[in-house]
Write a structure and sequence with these properties.
Shape: elongated
Number of strands: 3
Largest sheet: 3 strands, mixed
Helix content: 25-40%
Radius of gyration: 24 Å
């Protein structure tokens, strides 16, 4: 009987330590990104085939026009959802994923549409 109650106390203590550790981590690191400033904005343009429908420069210009360029902004003010919504308004873009990294960068991955056919003029 004494041995089983010892194991129950040991298990309860381990569970308490684990819960305490996770609580500490949440409180300690939840505000870690609030002090970071976006230093680099990487645009990864996934190829929509051989034809380029939109360039990184055009994407940057769209974001600049809407004041959504994250470089120099504090992480709480970087609106990744708004960046995605704004870029999806462009008919040349199929999908967009924007996220923040621990190192202070913002990564934007854009997938272009693949044209079914193109009309060539003289």
């Amino acid at each position: 009987m004494k041995l089983s109650s010892f194991y129950n106390i040991l298990i309860a203590l381990c569970i308490l330590l684990i819960v305490g550790y996770f609580s500490f981590m949440i409180v300690e690191y939840s505000d870690a990104n609030n002090d970071k400033i976006c230093m680099q904005f990487d645009i990864n343009l996934l190829d929509g085939g051989k034809t380029t429908l939109i360039s990184e420069t055009e994407i940057s210009n769209i974001l600049e026009a809407k004041n959504l360029n994250p470089v120099g902004k504090s992480f709480p003010y970087v609106q990744t959802d708004e960046i995605e919504r704004e870029l999806l308004k462009n008919s040349m873009i199929k999908s967009v994923e924007c996220y923040k990294t621990i190192s202070g960068n913002v990564i934007l991955t854009v997938k272009q549409r693949t044209p079914k056919f193109m009309i060539a003029g003289n």
